[in-house]
Amino acid sequence: MLKVRAKKALGQHFLRDLGVARQIAESLVFQHNRMPVLEVGPGMGVLTRFLLQNPRIELTAIELDRESVDYLTVNFPQLHLIHGDFLRLDLNILYPEGDFCVIGNYPYNISSQIFFKVLDYKDRIPCCSGMIQKEVAERLSAKPGNRQYGILSVLMQTWYNIEYLFTVHEHVFDPPPKVKSAVVRFTRNKRRRLDCNEQLYKQVVKTAFNQRRKQMRNSLMTLLGKGNPLLETDIFKKRPEQLSVEEFISLTNLIENDNVRTPYIL
Q1: Which CATH code for domain 8-188?
Q2: Could you say which of 1.10.275.10, 1.10.8.100, 3.90.1010.20, 1.10.3860.10 is the CATH number of the domain covering 198-261?
Q3: What are 190's strand-pairing partners?
Q4: What is the pTM of this model?
C-alpha cells in the first residue's frame, strides 16, 4: 500500500529514522513485568512496530486520521487500533482499572493539550514519553529562573519528574518540520496529594504567568483585592518564573487562608 499523505491540519510529520523510533520505544519505564501502553497518533506505524515487538507491552493505539487507520489495519493486523481523538477519549472506559503508560510521536499543535490530559489521569499513568517540538520539551523541563519556565513547567513538574532525553533533527521526517524535535519522559514523582487547594493552585499558577514579567503583587491582585496588605509580603514581590512548585503551594495556601478571612474569590 502507498504511504499515508501527511496532513498539515493534523500536524503530521512522519518519522523515517528507525533508530530514533527504536529509542523512543525504549524510553518507557515500567513498574510491572507487563504494562498496558497507549500510543497516540501512530501514523504509519514507525514507532508502533517496535512497541509491538516488546513482550512487556500490551499495546493499544488511537489514530484520528482515516487514511492512517486504513494503512495500519493492513500493515499491522495484530494491533488493537481505535479510530478516534485522544483528547475526547475517556481513558477510564478504555482502562477500567490499573495503571497504563502513554507514548507517541505527538502532533506538535496539540502536545500541550495531550499532556494536560495526562495530568487528569496522573494517578494511573506512571510513565509518559514521546517526541514533541524541541521548544515545548525545553519548556516542560525548565527549572525556576529559566525564561522558558511557565505554566506547563509548573503543573507538569508538580506531579512528574521530567527528563529531556535527546534532540531529533528535521531531516529524519517526511515532510521535514520547520523546527527541531526532542524526546521527553515523564515519570510519576512521590507526591500523591497537594498540601493546598488543587483548584486554586492551578488558578494561581495560570494567573501569575498570564503576566509573567510583572511581580505577583500586580498579577495576583485580582485574587486578593487591591490594597490587600498580603500583597506587600516578600513572595509577592517575585516574578512567577522565580518560584518552585513548593513555593507555589505555599503561595496558594497564603491566598486561600486570606480568602477564608476576607473572601474575594472563594
Answers
A1: 3.40.50.150
A2: 1.10.8.100
A3: none
A4: 0.91
